[in-house]
Design a protein that fits this description.
Blueprint: E1 3-11, E2 23-32, E3 36-43, E4 46-53, E5 59-67, H1 69-78, E6 81-94, E7 97-105, E8 112-117, E9 131-134, H2 143-146
Antiparallel strand pairs: 1-5, 1-8, 1-9, 2-3, 2-6, 3-4, 4-5, 6-7, 7-8
């Protein structure tokens, strides 16, 4: 069974970015249902299809499969609903853990979110000094929501 346990945080500053390079991600959704989302993602020259279950705090079921990158691009172009999510993802090590930091571009430009994947819901971890408020339980920060309600329009 695929399980994802992830916590999500806003960033306090940009000190994490020094000397780090990221990868360009484009993703869209074939389905954004309450109980299940189906995502297509292209990361440079790789394609992925991901199925995620309903979130229960930081926990949810997740299944991810690599697909041919051309299939990923065609699915994005022909079947994905709403706005695509575009971001640069950075992997930043800190205190023995890897933080994934997403710097959004396009309609979500200006939003930077850090995620950490855990082995258990109660796993402890050290928070880097650049981490700000936790937003794990705030659905506005779910990528599946950002494609419908982009960060650039939150002030409207």
């Amino acid at each position: 069974m695929g399980i994802e346990i992830e916590r999500k945080f806003l960033m306090q500053d940009a000190s994490w970015k020094e000397g780090i390079t990221g990868k360009h991600y484009i993703q869209g959704y074939l389905n954004r249902g309450k109980d299940c989302t189906v995502r297509v993602r292209v990361v440079e020259e790789q394609g992925f299809l991901t199925i995620k279950g309903l979130s229960d705090g930081p926990f949810r079921l997740e299944y991810e499969y690599e697909i041919p990158v051309e299939d990923g691009r065609e699915l994005l172009d022909n079947f994905c609903e709403q706005t695509r999510i575009e971001k640069i993802r950075y992997k930043v090590p800190y205190a023995g853990m890897i933080w994934e930091i997403d710097e959004f571009i396009g309609a979500n430009k200006g939003l930077i979110v850090a995620e950490i994947e855990l082995q258990s819901v109660d796993q402890s971890f050290a928070k880097p000094p650049w981490i700000g408020a936790e937003v794990t339980d705030d659905p506005r920060y779910f990528n599946s929501c950002l494609c419908v309600h982009p960060f650039s329009r939150w002030g409207e």
